[in-house]
Amino acid sequence: MVSLICTLQSHRDDVNCCAFSGSLLATCSADKSVCVYSSRDFSELPFSPLTGHGYGVHCCCFSACGQYLASCSTDATTVVWSMDTGEIEAILEHPGRSPVRVCAFSPDSSYLVSGGSDGSIALWDFTSRTLRRTGAVTDTSIVACSFTPCGQLFVTGSTYGDLRLWDLDMNPLHAEKNAHDLGVSCCQFAPQIMKGTDGCVQFHLASCGQDSLLKIWIVSLLSAAGIKMQLAHTLTGQSAPVLSCAYSADGQMLVSGSVDKTVTVYQANQGVLLYTLNQHDRYVTACAFSPTAPLIATGSMDKSVNIWKVEDGSSAQDEAASVSSNEGKKSRGHSRLMVSEWSEEDVLAWLREEGLEAVIDVFKSNNIDGEELLSLTKETLSSELHIESLGLRSKIMKKIEDLKMAPVSNGTPDEYLCPITREIMKDPVIAADGYSYEREAIESWISTKSRTSPMTNLPLQTTLLTPNRTLKMAIFRWTTCQ
Fold first, then answer.
1. What is the pLDDT of residues 456-482, one digit of tens each?
2. Of 132, 151, 140, nearest to 115 (Cα)?
3. Which helix (H) or strand (E) holds 471?
């Protein structure tokens, strides 16, 4: 079930793009502005709207940590904004001063790619904010781009209708000619890395275009034969050009927006149409999934952004079970979540269960949620929360340590456990050996174990760690269903 929960109407012209970070939603428009909202209650931030562009803004995207937002415009620039202050951090002028139609961060935010109306492509070193490489596709405009989840390749889509894969040296690795008749409008890689039956690395890629089709491709990296791109599904749920598409954080769902004013939601692996949504009055130009919540944002030429909640239909049964007893409420609530996912209310419930009612008001007034709870120390309890009793501070820290050391149930899937700590992962990352680890654990390992793999004992070719968002979402779903 998908339900409309709110409509945002801050823009004065067509909405061209929507993008989520873990805690924010950004939207950009032909009105030259970028609006930024809290994804908790969709209130607009004090520094919004951002108004540094001279012409319409075509695309916006967040860095992996959500600290920066990039937006690109007909004014031939990609602007980098600080999400702490709303100030401009950098202005990246596109080579040849071409209008910039699209931009995208690599998964670790090391790189930013931008595509121009003249077919030019710029690859920026985001750390230094410098131009690293340029490339071009002749006689077309670049209107779509996306990095693979490993961050080593990216794809571009053009108004000519082709999809092209590039490496970080801007070498063209593969061209899928006529992927969409009359032109590509959007493309995005699914966030997971897969393995084919022959052991090769594979990615899923969604693309849409002026041919009214949404397509799902399997991109295989073949060690000897290069790259193979195979069409897996052609989705025909919309009756007019499809302007935007996006994967959910776990790669299981796919959303698209169309000139026919509809939003469609698919089960991605089988290409099955799940929902058709009809709340926009004009073309649906943008769509995005939240990486941390079951939310979809869709933007339209009707100047509005709709926020949708995706529900699995189990909430009614959960609610019924929750009122049967106090124990039932506990099993439905915070005890089923990883502590880092607890809300402020979950933390207050835990304090009551642990006999710490004396500090409930303090925690409530400081809005302590699960992530902040785990970061507390005796020093912060004293200096920031002003808990003067040494004994009470010690008791709180003992309870927090017990939380951190809570045993994993015997039914936990092994792939959800860090190979180093054997605990459920909170921030899984993929290392160069292809295995997923808890970020803190593998970073500590690399710093003390001479850059060898914990699983193979072979040298790691790089210390680059790629966030495994698919695994993180799968763990979250599993823990909330226990």
1. 667 777 788 888 877 887 788 777 765
2. 140
3. helix 469-480
Length in residues, the chain: 482
Are 258 and 264 within 8 A, CB to CB?
yes
Label residues 317-340 b or e (16+ Cβ within 10 Å = b): eeeeeeeeeeeeeeebbbbbbbbe
Q: Which residues contact 402 (CB under 8 A, 6 or more apart)?
A: none
pLDDT band at 404 (very low <50, low <70, confident <90, very high): low
CA distance 120 to 246: 24
* Residue ranges with strand state E in 126-225: 130-136, 142-147, 153-158, 163-167, 172-176, 184-189, 194-195, 201-209, 214-222
Residue 254 identity (one-letter amino acid)? L
Tell me the three-class secondary structure of 41-62, residue by residue: CCCECCCCCECCCCCCEEEEEE
The residue whose two tokens read 């931008």 is 114
Task: Read off the pLDDT band of 67 (50, 70, 90).
Answer: very high
Structure-token pair, residue 441: 């654990």
Task: Please indicate, yes or no, whether the overall pTM of this predicted structure exceeds 0.70.
Answer: no
CB 340 within 8 A of CB 426: yes
Quickly list H helices, 275-404: 315-322, 326-332, 344-353, 360-365, 370-375, 378-383, 390-404
- pLDDT 10s digits, 280-336: 999 999 999 999 999 999 999 999 999 999 986 433 333 333 322 233 333 334 444
Residue whose C-alpha is closest to residue 27's, from 61, 55, 51, 53: 61
Query: What is the C-alpha radius of gyration for the chain, rounded to an integer number of angstroms?
Result: 23
278 neighbors 262 (Cβ within 8 angstroms): yes
* Residue whose pair of structure tokens reads 């490489």 in the numeric block: 133
Q: CA nearest 19: which of 82, 78, 61? A: 61
Confidence of residue 401 (pLDDT cuts 50, 70, 90): confident
Whole-angstrom distance, CA of residue 191 vs CA of residue 222: 19
- Non-local CB neighbours of 137 within 8 Å, separated by 6+ positions: 119, 121, 156, 158, 160, 162, 164
